[in-house]
Protein backbone atom coordinates (compact mmCIF):
# COMPACT_ATOMS: atom_id res chain seq x y z
CA UNK A 1 0.00 0.00 0.00
CA UNK A 2 1.18 3.48 -0.80
CA UNK A 3 2.58 5.80 1.83
CA UNK A 4 -0.15 8.25 0.87
CA UNK A 5 -2.83 5.69 1.67
CA UNK A 6 -1.14 4.86 4.97
CA UNK A 7 -0.98 8.48 6.06
CA UNK A 8 -4.55 9.13 5.03
CA UNK A 9 -5.71 5.96 6.79
CA UNK A 10 -4.00 7.03 9.99
CA UNK A 11 -5.68 10.45 9.84
CA UNK A 12 -9.07 8.91 9.20
CA UNK A 13 -8.64 6.30 11.87
CA UNK A 14 -8.07 8.97 14.51
CA UNK A 15 -10.83 11.11 13.06
CA UNK A 16 -13.34 8.27 13.45
CA UNK A 17 -12.57 8.08 17.14
CA UNK A 18 -12.62 11.86 17.49
CA UNK A 19 -15.94 12.29 15.71
CA UNK A 20 -17.63 9.56 17.74
CA UNK A 21 -16.70 11.43 20.92
CA UNK A 22 -17.61 14.83 19.53
CA UNK A 23 -21.01 13.86 18.17
CA UNK A 24 -22.02 11.96 21.30
CA UNK A 25 -20.87 14.86 23.50
CA UNK A 26 -23.02 17.14 21.37
CA UNK A 27 -26.06 14.88 21.82
CA UNK A 28 -25.54 14.71 25.58
CA UNK A 29 -25.05 18.47 25.64
CA UNK A 30 -28.64 18.84 24.43
CA UNK A 31 -29.81 17.17 27.64
CA UNK A 32 -28.01 19.29 30.20
CA UNK A 33 -30.67 20.99 32.31
CA UNK A 34 -33.39 18.63 31.05
CA UNK A 35 -32.55 15.19 32.51
CA UNK A 36 -35.09 13.19 34.57
CA UNK A 37 -33.45 14.09 37.89
CA UNK A 38 -30.69 16.37 39.11
CA UNK A 39 -28.24 13.50 39.76
CA UNK A 40 -28.68 12.17 36.22
CA UNK A 41 -28.31 15.66 34.84
CA UNK A 42 -24.97 16.01 36.59
CA UNK A 43 -23.82 12.51 35.64
CA UNK A 44 -24.70 12.85 31.95
CA UNK A 45 -23.06 16.25 31.92
CA UNK A 46 -19.89 14.72 33.31
CA UNK A 47 -19.90 12.09 30.59
CA UNK A 48 -20.43 14.78 27.97
CA UNK A 49 -17.52 16.78 29.33
CA UNK A 50 -15.22 13.75 29.30
CA UNK A 51 -16.17 12.87 25.73
CA UNK A 52 -15.71 16.44 24.58
CA UNK A 53 -12.28 16.49 26.21
CA UNK A 54 -11.29 13.30 24.39
CA UNK A 55 -12.70 14.65 21.13
CA UNK A 56 -10.55 17.75 21.42
CA UNK A 57 -7.36 15.77 22.01
CA UNK A 58 -8.14 13.40 19.15
CA UNK A 59 -9.10 16.17 16.73
CA UNK A 60 -5.91 18.04 17.50
CA UNK A 61 -3.93 14.87 16.92
CA UNK A 62 -5.80 14.16 13.67
CA UNK A 63 -5.06 17.69 12.49
CA UNK A 64 -1.36 17.18 13.18
CA UNK A 65 -1.35 13.87 11.30
CA UNK A 66 -3.04 15.49 8.33
CA UNK A 67 -0.50 18.30 8.25
CA UNK A 68 -2.84 20.85 6.67
CA UNK A 69 -2.89 23.25 9.63
CA UNK A 70 -6.42 22.35 10.61
CA UNK A 71 -6.98 22.77 14.34
CA UNK A 72 -9.71 21.20 16.48
CA UNK A 73 -12.20 23.95 15.66
CA UNK A 74 -11.66 23.84 11.91
CA UNK A 75 -12.18 20.11 11.98
CA UNK A 76 -15.26 20.32 14.18
CA UNK A 77 -16.98 23.31 12.66
CA UNK A 78 -15.90 23.50 9.03
CA UNK A 79 -16.31 19.97 7.73
CA UNK A 80 -19.37 18.76 5.83
CA UNK A 81 -21.55 15.90 6.96
CA UNK A 82 -19.95 13.42 4.53
CA UNK A 83 -16.55 14.14 6.07
CA UNK A 84 -17.71 13.16 9.56
CA UNK A 85 -16.58 9.64 10.32
CA UNK A 86 -18.43 8.81 13.53
CA UNK A 87 -20.43 5.62 13.78
CA UNK A 88 -24.11 6.34 13.16
CA UNK A 89 -24.91 5.00 16.66
CA UNK A 90 -23.83 8.25 18.33
CA UNK A 91 -25.77 10.57 16.03
CA UNK A 92 -29.11 8.94 16.88
CA UNK A 93 -31.43 11.45 18.57
CA UNK A 94 -31.82 11.40 22.34
CA UNK A 95 -35.43 10.24 22.37
CA UNK A 96 -36.46 9.10 25.84
CA UNK A 97 -34.09 8.35 28.71
CA UNK A 98 -34.02 4.67 27.70
CA UNK A 99 -32.59 5.60 24.30
CA UNK A 100 -30.04 7.87 25.90
CA UNK A 101 -28.92 5.16 28.31
CA UNK A 102 -28.90 2.26 25.85
CA UNK A 103 -26.98 4.29 23.26
CA UNK A 104 -24.49 5.21 25.95
CA UNK A 105 -24.19 1.64 27.17
CA UNK A 106 -23.55 0.18 23.69
CA UNK A 107 -21.00 2.91 23.06
CA UNK A 108 -19.24 2.82 26.44
CA UNK A 109 -18.63 -0.94 26.27
CA UNK A 110 -17.15 -0.51 22.78
CA UNK A 111 -15.04 2.48 23.73
CA UNK A 112 -13.69 0.81 26.84
CA UNK A 113 -12.47 -2.15 24.82
CA UNK A 114 -11.04 0.04 22.06
CA UNK A 115 -9.16 2.25 24.51
CA UNK A 116 -7.92 -0.70 26.53
CA UNK A 117 -6.13 -2.00 23.43
CA UNK A 118 -5.12 1.38 22.03
CA UNK A 119 -3.05 1.91 25.16
CA UNK A 120 -0.45 -0.25 23.39
CA UNK A 121 -0.71 1.60 20.05
CA UNK A 122 2.43 2.27 18.02
CA UNK A 123 1.17 5.85 17.79
CA UNK A 124 2.35 7.23 21.14
CA UNK A 125 -0.03 10.20 21.07
CA UNK A 126 -2.98 7.94 20.48
CA UNK A 127 -1.79 5.55 23.19
CA UNK A 128 -1.58 8.43 25.68
CA UNK A 129 -5.08 9.69 24.83
CA UNK A 130 -6.45 6.16 25.16
CA UNK A 131 -4.71 5.61 28.49
CA UNK A 132 -6.46 8.68 29.88
CA UNK A 133 -9.75 7.79 28.19
CA UNK A 134 -9.88 4.25 29.46
CA UNK A 135 -10.41 5.38 33.05
CA UNK A 136 -13.24 7.65 31.97
CA UNK A 137 -14.81 4.94 29.78
CA UNK A 138 -14.79 2.49 32.68
CA UNK A 139 -16.63 4.99 34.84
CA UNK A 140 -19.10 5.81 32.04
CA UNK A 141 -19.85 2.13 31.50
CA UNK A 142 -20.52 1.65 35.20
CA UNK A 143 -23.06 4.49 35.05
CA UNK A 144 -24.78 3.40 31.84
CA UNK A 145 -24.87 -0.33 32.59
CA UNK A 146 -26.20 0.43 36.08
CA UNK A 147 -29.09 2.27 34.50
CA UNK A 148 -29.68 -0.44 31.87
CA UNK A 149 -30.14 -2.88 34.74
CA UNK A 150 -32.43 -0.53 36.68
CA UNK A 151 -34.57 0.15 33.62
CA UNK A 152 -34.69 -3.47 32.49
CA UNK A 153 -35.40 -4.83 35.95
CA UNK A 154 -37.51 -1.84 37.01
CA UNK A 155 -41.16 -1.46 36.04
CA UNK A 156 -43.06 -2.93 33.11
CA UNK A 157 -42.92 0.43 31.36
CA UNK A 158 -39.18 0.96 31.86
CA UNK A 159 -38.47 -2.57 30.70
CA UNK A 160 -40.52 -2.08 27.50
CA UNK A 161 -38.83 1.23 26.80
CA UNK A 162 -35.36 -0.21 27.33
CA UNK A 163 -36.08 -3.18 25.06
CA UNK A 164 -37.46 -0.84 22.40
CA UNK A 165 -34.36 1.33 22.53
CA UNK A 166 -32.17 -1.74 22.26
CA UNK A 167 -34.01 -2.92 19.14
CA UNK A 168 -33.87 0.51 17.54
CA UNK A 169 -30.17 1.10 18.17
CA UNK A 170 -28.85 -2.40 17.62
CA UNK A 171 -28.34 -2.17 13.82
CA UNK A 172 -26.01 0.76 14.38
CA UNK A 173 -23.58 -1.49 16.25
CA UNK A 174 -22.73 -3.53 13.14
CA UNK A 175 -20.13 -1.08 11.86
CA UNK A 176 -18.40 -0.94 15.22
CA UNK A 177 -16.87 -4.37 14.56
CA UNK A 178 -16.76 -4.67 10.78
CA UNK A 179 -13.13 -4.03 9.86
CA UNK A 180 -12.51 -2.24 6.56
CA UNK A 181 -9.31 -1.28 4.71
CA UNK A 182 -8.50 1.49 7.15
CA UNK A 183 -8.99 -0.72 10.20
CA UNK A 184 -6.88 -3.46 8.65
CA UNK A 185 -4.07 -1.14 7.61
CA UNK A 186 -3.91 0.41 11.07
CA UNK A 187 -3.97 -2.98 12.76
CA UNK A 188 -1.13 -4.15 10.51
CA UNK A 189 0.93 -1.11 11.53
CA UNK A 190 0.28 -1.63 15.21
CA UNK A 191 -1.55 1.70 15.39
CA UNK A 192 -5.07 0.32 15.51
CA UNK A 193 -6.82 -2.50 17.33
CA UNK A 194 -8.22 -5.90 16.40
CA UNK A 195 -11.97 -5.40 16.07
CA UNK A 196 -12.60 -9.14 16.35
CA UNK A 197 -11.12 -9.12 19.84
CA UNK A 198 -13.02 -5.94 20.68
CA UNK A 199 -16.25 -7.59 19.60
CA UNK A 200 -15.68 -10.67 21.74
CA UNK A 201 -15.04 -8.52 24.80
CA UNK A 202 -17.97 -6.23 23.96
CA UNK A 203 -20.27 -9.23 23.72
CA UNK A 204 -19.32 -10.24 27.23
CA UNK A 205 -20.21 -6.78 28.61
CA UNK A 206 -23.48 -6.74 26.70
CA UNK A 207 -24.59 -10.26 27.56
CA UNK A 208 -23.74 -9.96 31.25
CA UNK A 209 -25.57 -6.67 31.67
CA UNK A 210 -28.58 -7.63 29.55
CA UNK A 211 -28.97 -10.83 31.55
CA UNK A 212 -28.92 -8.89 34.79
CA UNK A 213 -31.38 -6.43 33.29
CA UNK A 214 -33.65 -9.26 32.11
CA UNK A 215 -33.53 -7.75 28.61
CA UNK A 216 -33.29 -9.71 25.38
CA UNK A 217 -30.35 -9.33 23.06
CA UNK A 218 -31.76 -8.33 19.66
CA UNK A 219 -31.18 -10.55 16.65
CA UNK A 220 -28.38 -9.45 14.34
CA UNK A 221 -29.69 -8.06 11.08
CA UNK A 222 -27.81 -6.75 8.06
CA UNK A 223 -26.90 -3.07 8.05
CA UNK A 224 -24.59 -1.62 5.45
CA UNK A 225 -24.62 2.15 5.94
CA UNK A 226 -21.52 3.00 7.88
CA UNK A 227 -20.94 6.38 9.46
CA UNK A 228 -17.25 5.61 9.61
CA UNK A 229 -17.27 5.81 5.82
CA UNK A 230 -19.26 9.05 5.86
CA UNK A 231 -22.64 7.39 5.19
CA UNK A 232 -25.00 9.07 7.60
CA UNK A 233 -28.74 9.17 8.01
CA UNK A 234 -30.85 12.30 8.35
CA UNK A 235 -30.02 13.23 11.92
CA UNK A 236 -26.39 14.25 11.67
CA UNK A 237 -27.06 17.12 9.27
CA UNK A 238 -29.26 18.89 11.80
CA UNK A 239 -26.85 18.23 14.61
CA UNK A 240 -24.07 19.82 12.58
CA UNK A 241 -26.24 22.74 11.48
CA UNK A 242 -26.70 23.58 15.14
CA UNK A 243 -23.17 22.86 16.26
CA UNK A 244 -21.54 24.73 13.36
CA UNK A 245 -23.95 27.67 13.32
CA UNK A 246 -21.61 30.29 14.77
CA UNK A 247 -18.55 29.44 12.71
CA UNK A 248 -20.65 29.30 9.55
CA UNK A 249 -22.44 32.58 10.27
CA UNK A 250 -19.32 34.55 11.20
CA UNK A 251 -16.52 33.10 9.06
CA UNK A 252 -13.06 33.85 10.35
CA UNK A 253 -14.10 35.48 13.63
CA UNK A 254 -12.22 34.58 16.82
CA UNK A 255 -14.21 33.67 19.91
CA UNK B 1 -37.20 28.10 79.43
CA UNK B 2 -40.08 30.08 77.98
CA UNK B 3 -39.98 31.04 74.34
CA UNK B 4 -39.15 34.64 75.05
CA UNK B 5 -36.08 33.64 76.99
CA UNK B 6 -35.09 31.21 74.24
CA UNK B 7 -35.45 33.91 71.68
CA UNK B 8 -33.36 36.31 73.75
CA UNK B 9 -30.64 33.74 74.09
CA UNK B 10 -30.82 32.98 70.36
CA UNK B 11 -30.42 36.64 69.48
CA UNK B 12 -27.53 36.95 71.93
CA UNK B 13 -25.72 34.11 70.18
CA UNK B 14 -26.21 35.82 66.85
CA UNK B 15 -25.04 39.14 68.24
CA UNK B 16 -21.90 37.35 69.45
CA UNK B 17 -21.37 36.10 65.88
CA UNK B 18 -21.94 32.49 66.84
CA UNK B 19 -23.04 30.07 64.14
CA UNK B 20 -26.48 28.51 64.41
CA UNK B 21 -26.48 24.82 63.52
CA UNK B 22 -29.48 22.70 62.43
CA UNK B 23 -29.88 20.98 65.82
CA UNK B 24 -29.86 24.28 67.75
CA UNK B 25 -33.05 25.91 68.91
CA UNK B 26 -34.23 28.62 66.51
CA UNK B 27 -37.37 30.71 66.21
CA UNK B 28 -39.87 29.35 63.70
CA UNK B 29 -39.76 32.57 61.74
CA UNK B 30 -35.95 32.28 61.41
CA UNK B 31 -36.35 28.73 60.12
CA UNK B 32 -39.10 29.74 57.69
CA UNK B 33 -37.14 32.71 56.40
CA UNK B 34 -34.09 30.56 55.78
CA UNK B 35 -36.06 27.79 54.09
CA UNK B 36 -37.64 30.36 51.79
CA UNK B 37 -34.38 32.08 50.98
CA UNK B 38 -32.25 28.96 50.58
CA UNK B 39 -34.85 27.12 48.52
CA UNK B 40 -35.20 30.19 46.31
CA UNK B 41 -31.45 30.19 45.91
CA UNK B 42 -31.37 26.47 45.06
CA UNK B 43 -34.19 26.87 42.53
CA UNK B 44 -32.34 29.78 40.95
CA UNK B 45 -29.27 27.62 40.37
CA UNK B 46 -31.38 24.94 38.70
CA UNK B 47 -33.52 27.26 36.57
CA UNK B 48 -30.34 29.20 35.81
CA UNK B 49 -29.04 26.18 33.95
CA UNK B 50 -31.63 26.80 31.23
CA UNK B 51 -30.70 30.16 29.69
CA UNK B 52 -27.05 29.16 29.49
CA UNK B 53 -27.77 25.57 28.54
CA UNK B 54 -29.44 27.17 25.52
CA UNK B 55 -25.95 27.77 24.05
CA UNK B 56 -24.14 24.54 24.87
CA UNK B 57 -24.93 23.03 21.49
CA UNK B 58 -24.00 26.22 19.63
CA UNK B 59 -20.90 27.42 21.45
CA UNK B 60 -18.55 28.89 18.84
CA UNK B 61 -15.42 26.89 19.75
CA UNK B 62 -14.84 23.55 21.42
CA UNK B 63 -12.98 25.22 24.26
CA UNK B 64 -15.89 27.58 24.92
CA UNK B 65 -18.27 24.63 24.70
CA UNK B 66 -16.30 22.73 27.33
CA UNK B 67 -16.15 25.78 29.64
CA UNK B 68 -19.88 26.41 29.25
CA UNK B 69 -20.78 22.78 29.86
CA UNK B 70 -18.68 22.78 33.00
CA UNK B 71 -20.27 26.02 34.14
CA UNK B 72 -23.81 24.80 33.70
CA UNK B 73 -22.76 21.64 35.54
CA UNK B 74 -21.42 23.75 38.39
CA UNK B 75 -24.77 25.52 38.70
CA UNK B 76 -26.51 22.14 38.93
CA UNK B 77 -24.02 21.17 41.62
CA UNK B 78 -24.76 24.40 43.50
CA UNK B 79 -28.44 23.55 43.34
CA UNK B 80 -27.86 20.04 44.72
CA UNK B 81 -25.65 21.40 47.47
CA UNK B 82 -28.13 24.11 48.46
CA UNK B 83 -31.08 21.71 48.47
CA UNK B 84 -29.01 19.55 50.79
CA UNK B 85 -28.28 22.49 53.10
CA UNK B 86 -31.98 23.43 53.12
CA UNK B 87 -32.94 19.87 54.04
CA UNK B 88 -31.07 20.32 57.33
CA UNK B 89 -33.94 22.63 58.32
CA UNK B 90 -36.44 19.78 58.16
CA UNK B 91 -37.83 19.97 54.62
CA UNK B 92 -37.27 17.56 51.72
CA UNK B 93 -35.86 18.38 48.34
CA UNK B 94 -38.83 16.68 46.70
CA UNK B 95 -41.26 18.95 48.53
CA UNK B 96 -39.25 22.04 47.59
CA UNK B 97 -39.18 21.00 43.94
CA UNK B 98 -42.92 20.35 44.01
CA UNK B 99 -43.38 23.95 45.16
CA UNK B 100 -41.19 25.22 42.35
CA UNK B 101 -43.08 23.23 39.73
CA UNK B 102 -46.42 24.32 41.14
CA UNK B 103 -45.33 27.92 40.67
CA UNK B 104 -45.55 28.51 44.42
CA UNK B 105 -41.83 29.09 45.00
CA UNK B 106 -39.77 31.92 43.56
CA UNK B 107 -36.42 31.83 41.83
CA UNK B 108 -34.24 34.71 40.71
CA UNK B 109 -36.15 36.69 38.08
CA UNK B 110 -33.00 37.22 36.06
CA UNK B 111 -33.36 33.72 34.60
CA UNK B 112 -36.64 34.70 33.01
CA UNK B 113 -34.72 36.70 30.43
CA UNK B 114 -33.68 35.08 27.14
CA UNK B 115 -30.23 34.41 25.68
CA UNK B 116 -30.69 35.20 21.98
CA UNK B 117 -26.95 35.48 21.16
CA UNK B 118 -23.62 34.04 22.21
CA UNK B 119 -22.78 37.39 23.81
CA UNK B 120 -25.57 36.80 26.32
CA UNK B 121 -23.49 33.94 27.68
CA UNK B 122 -20.64 36.37 28.22
CA UNK B 123 -22.93 38.96 29.77
CA UNK B 124 -24.50 36.44 32.15
CA UNK B 125 -21.13 35.28 33.42
CA UNK B 126 -19.82 38.78 33.78
CA UNK B 127 -22.90 40.51 35.19
CA UNK B 128 -25.20 37.87 36.62
CA UNK B 129 -22.52 35.74 38.24
CA UNK B 130 -20.85 39.02 39.20
CA UNK B 131 -23.99 40.27 40.94
CA UNK B 132 -24.49 36.84 42.52
CA UNK B 133 -21.01 37.09 44.04
CA UNK B 134 -21.78 40.54 45.47
CA UNK B 135 -24.91 39.11 47.07
CA UNK B 136 -23.28 35.92 48.25
CA UNK B 137 -19.94 36.96 49.69
CA UNK B 138 -21.65 38.48 52.75
CA UNK B 139 -23.64 35.22 53.04
CA UNK B 140 -20.40 33.35 53.68
CA UNK B 141 -20.67 34.93 57.15
CA UNK B 142 -24.39 34.24 57.46
CA UNK B 143 -25.55 33.14 60.93
CA UNK B 144 -26.83 29.75 59.76
CA UNK B 145 -23.88 27.34 59.52
CA UNK B 146 -24.89 25.08 56.61
CA UNK B 147 -25.84 28.07 54.45
CA UNK B 148 -22.61 29.92 55.24
CA UNK B 149 -20.49 26.87 54.42
CA UNK B 150 -22.38 26.25 51.18
CA UNK B 151 -21.73 29.85 50.20
CA UNK B 152 -17.99 29.61 50.77
CA UNK B 153 -17.77 26.72 48.36
CA UNK B 154 -20.14 28.22 45.82
CA UNK B 155 -18.55 31.67 45.78
CA UNK B 156 -15.24 30.20 44.66
CA UNK B 157 -16.86 28.73 41.58
CA UNK B 158 -18.96 31.80 40.88
CA UNK B 159 -15.85 33.92 40.66
CA UNK B 160 -14.48 31.55 38.00
CA UNK B 161 -17.75 31.96 36.13
CA UNK B 162 -17.51 35.71 36.37
CA UNK B 163 -13.99 35.72 34.92
CA UNK B 164 -14.94 33.33 32.13
CA UNK B 165 -17.91 35.50 31.22
CA UNK B 166 -15.77 38.61 31.17
CA UNK B 167 -13.28 36.78 28.98
CA UNK B 168 -16.02 36.08 26.43
CA UNK B 169 -16.92 39.78 26.44
CA UNK B 170 -13.27 40.77 26.09
CA UNK B 171 -12.84 38.55 23.07
CA UNK B 172 -16.00 39.97 21.50
CA UNK B 173 -14.98 43.53 22.19
CA UNK B 174 -11.70 42.97 20.35
CA UNK B 175 -13.44 41.26 17.45
CA UNK B 176 -15.35 42.27 14.35
CA UNK B 177 -18.03 44.98 14.18
CA UNK B 178 -20.68 42.28 14.41
CA UNK B 179 -19.09 40.88 17.54
CA UNK B 180 -18.80 44.30 19.21
CA UNK B 181 -22.42 45.02 18.39
CA UNK B 182 -23.39 41.65 19.83
CA UNK B 183 -21.51 42.46 23.04
CA UNK B 184 -23.07 45.92 23.39
CA UNK B 185 -26.57 44.60 22.81
CA UNK B 186 -26.06 41.91 25.41
CA UNK B 187 -24.87 44.51 27.93
CA UNK B 188 -27.94 46.60 27.11
CA UNK B 189 -30.16 43.61 27.70
CA UNK B 190 -28.60 42.41 30.95
CA UNK B 191 -27.64 45.65 32.68
CA UNK B 192 -30.99 46.55 34.22
CA UNK B 193 -32.06 43.02 35.11
CA UNK B 194 -28.65 42.56 36.80
CA UNK B 195 -29.18 45.66 38.93
CA UNK B 196 -32.63 44.34 39.84
CA UNK B 197 -31.01 41.16 41.18
CA UNK B 198 -30.22 43.04 44.40
CA UNK B 199 -33.91 43.36 45.12
CA UNK B 200 -36.23 46.34 45.53
CA UNK B 201 -34.97 49.67 46.88
CA UNK B 202 -34.34 49.65 50.64
CA UNK B 203 -37.44 51.72 51.29
CA UNK B 204 -39.66 48.97 49.78
CA UNK B 205 -37.78 45.93 51.02
CA UNK B 206 -40.07 43.76 53.13
CA UNK B 207 -37.72 41.34 54.80
CA UNK B 208 -34.59 43.40 55.21
CA UNK B 209 -34.64 44.69 58.79
CA UNK B 210 -35.36 41.36 60.46
CA UNK B 211 -32.87 39.55 58.21
CA UNK B 212 -30.21 42.07 59.19
CA UNK B 213 -30.87 41.43 62.88
CA UNK B 214 -30.53 37.70 62.24
CA UNK B 215 -27.37 38.24 60.20
CA UNK B 216 -28.88 36.44 57.24
CA UNK B 217 -28.33 39.70 55.48
CA UNK B 218 -25.43 42.04 56.18
CA UNK B 219 -25.82 44.86 53.69
CA UNK B 220 -28.88 46.56 52.29
CA UNK B 221 -30.05 46.00 48.71
CA UNK B 222 -29.07 49.50 47.68
CA UNK B 223 -25.61 49.24 49.26
CA UNK B 224 -24.84 46.05 47.36
CA UNK B 225 -26.27 47.49 44.15
CA UNK B 226 -24.06 50.56 44.44
CA UNK B 227 -21.02 48.42 45.12
CA UNK B 228 -21.79 46.33 42.02
CA UNK B 229 -22.12 49.43 39.85
CA UNK B 230 -18.82 50.83 41.13
CA UNK B 231 -17.13 47.55 40.39
CA UNK B 232 -18.66 46.95 36.97
CA UNK B 233 -18.65 50.33 35.23
CA UNK B 234 -14.85 50.46 34.86
CA UNK B 235 -14.91 46.92 33.48
CA UNK B 236 -17.40 48.00 30.83
CA UNK B 237 -15.19 50.97 30.01
CA UNK B 238 -12.22 48.67 29.59
CA UNK B 239 -14.28 46.65 27.12
CA UNK B 240 -15.13 49.82 25.22
CA UNK B 241 -18.82 49.25 25.90
CA UNK B 242 -21.38 51.84 26.96
CA UNK B 243 -23.29 51.30 30.18
CA UNK B 244 -26.97 52.16 29.70
CA UNK B 245 -27.98 55.44 31.32
CA UNK B 246 -31.18 56.13 33.22
CA UNK B 247 -33.17 54.68 36.07
CA UNK B 248 -34.24 51.18 37.01
CA UNK B 249 -37.78 50.53 35.83
CA UNK B 250 -39.25 48.90 38.93
CA UNK B 251 -42.53 48.19 37.20
CA UNK B 252 -40.66 45.79 34.92
CA UNK B 253 -39.16 44.15 38.00
CA UNK B 254 -42.62 43.60 39.48
CA UNK B 255 -44.05 42.31 36.21
CA UNK B 256 -41.33 39.72 35.75
CA UNK B 257 -41.60 38.73 39.41
CA UNK B 258 -45.34 38.27 38.96
CA UNK B 259 -44.81 35.88 36.08
CA UNK B 260 -44.98 38.25 33.13
CA UNK B 261 -41.36 38.16 31.99
CA UNK B 262 -40.21 37.09 28.53
CA UNK B 263 -39.38 33.48 29.47
CA UNK B 264 -41.24 32.74 32.72
CA UNK B 265 -43.52 30.24 31.03
CA UNK B 266 -40.74 28.48 29.12
CA UNK B 267 -38.54 28.12 32.17
CA UNK B 268 -41.19 26.55 34.32
CA UNK B 269 -42.45 24.45 31.42
CA UNK B 270 -38.95 23.10 30.82
CA UNK B 271 -38.56 22.14 34.48
CA UNK B 272 -42.02 20.53 34.51
CA UNK B 273 -41.35 18.63 31.30
CA UNK B 274 -38.09 17.20 32.65
CA UNK B 275 -39.84 16.23 35.87
CA UNK B 276 -42.83 14.61 34.17
CA UNK B 277 -40.75 12.81 31.56
CA UNK B 278 -38.54 11.57 34.35
CA UNK B 279 -41.39 10.06 36.31
CA UNK B 280 -41.19 6.59 34.77
CA UNK B 281 -37.41 6.66 35.21
CA UNK B 282 -37.62 7.47 38.91
CA UNK B 283 -40.35 4.83 39.30
CA UNK B 284 -38.07 2.26 37.68
CA UNK B 285 -35.22 3.15 40.03
CA UNK B 286 -37.52 2.83 43.05
CA UNK B 287 -38.95 -0.49 41.87
CA UNK B 288 -35.48 -1.85 41.22
CA UNK B 289 -34.17 -0.68 44.58
CA UNK B 290 -36.99 -2.31 46.53
CA UNK B 291 -36.61 -5.53 44.56
CA UNK B 292 -32.90 -5.53 45.31
CA UNK B 293 -33.57 -4.95 49.00
CA UNK B 294 -36.01 -7.85 49.03
CA UNK B 295 -33.44 -10.09 47.33
CA UNK B 296 -30.85 -9.15 49.94
CA UNK B 297 -33.27 -9.94 52.74
CA UNK B 298 -34.02 -13.30 51.19
CA UNK B 299 -30.36 -14.11 50.75
CA UNK B 300 -29.68 -13.21 54.39
CA UNK B 301 -32.50 -15.33 55.84
FE1 LIG C 1 -24.23 29.05 40.91
FE1 LIG D 1 -22.36 30.65 38.41
Beta-strand content bin of chain A: under 5%
What's the shape of chain B?
A: globular
State the major sheet of chain A: none
Provide the domain count of chain A: 1
Amino-to-carboxy terminus distance of chain A: 42 Å
The oligomeric state is: heterodimer
Give the integer mean of the pLDDT values of chain B: 96
What CATH architecture of chain A would you give?
Up-down Bundle
Descriptive report:
The complex is a heterodimer of chains A (255) and B (301). Chain A has 255 residues and is mostly helical. Chain A is built from 11 helices and no strands. Chain A has one domain: Ferritin, core subunit, four-helix bundle (Ferritin), CATH 1.20.1260. In chain A, helix 4 runs antiparallel to helix 9. The longest helix of chain A is centred in the first third of the chain and has 29 residues. Chain A is globular, with a radius of gyration of 18 Å. The N and C termini of chain A lie far apart (42 Å). The mean pLDDT of chain A is 97. By secondary structure, chain B is mostly helical. The mean pLDDT of chain B is 96. Chains A and B meet through helix 1, helix 2, helix 3, helix 5 and helix 6 of A and helix 3, helix 4, helix 7, helix 12 and helix 13 of B. One fe (ii) ion binds next to helix 7 of chain B. The site of one fe (ii) ion has 4 residues of chain B, from helix 7.
Please give the structural blueprint.
The complex is a heterodimer of chains A (255) and B (301).
Chain A: H1 3-31, H2 38-66, H3 72-77, H4 97-118, H5 124-152, H6 156-169, H7 174-177, H8 181-188, H9 195-212, H10 235-243, H11 245-249
Chain B: H1 3-15, H2 28-47, H3 49-53, H4 62-87, H5 93-101, H6 118-136, H7 145-173, H8 177-196, H9 208-213, H10 221-239, H11 250-260, H12 264-277, H13 279-300
Helix pairs in contact in B: 2-4, 4-7, 6-7, 6-8, 6-10
The structure holds fe (ii) ion (FE2) (2 copies).
Amino acid sequence: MSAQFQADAHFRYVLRLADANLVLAQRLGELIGHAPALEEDLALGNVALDLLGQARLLLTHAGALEGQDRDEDMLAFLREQREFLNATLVEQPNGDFAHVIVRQFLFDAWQLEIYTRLGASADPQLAAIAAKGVKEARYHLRFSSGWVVRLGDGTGESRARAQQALEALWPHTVELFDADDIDRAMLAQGVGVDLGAVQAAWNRHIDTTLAEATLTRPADRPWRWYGKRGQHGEHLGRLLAEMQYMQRTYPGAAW
Amino acid sequence: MDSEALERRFQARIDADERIEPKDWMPDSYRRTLIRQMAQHAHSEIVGMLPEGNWITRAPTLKRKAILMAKVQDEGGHGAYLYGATETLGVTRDALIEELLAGAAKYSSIFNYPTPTWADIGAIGWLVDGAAIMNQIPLCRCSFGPYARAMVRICKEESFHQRQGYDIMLQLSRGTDAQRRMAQEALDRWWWPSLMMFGPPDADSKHSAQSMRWKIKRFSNDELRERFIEFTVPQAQYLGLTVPQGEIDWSEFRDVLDGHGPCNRERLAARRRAHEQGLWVRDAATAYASRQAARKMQAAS
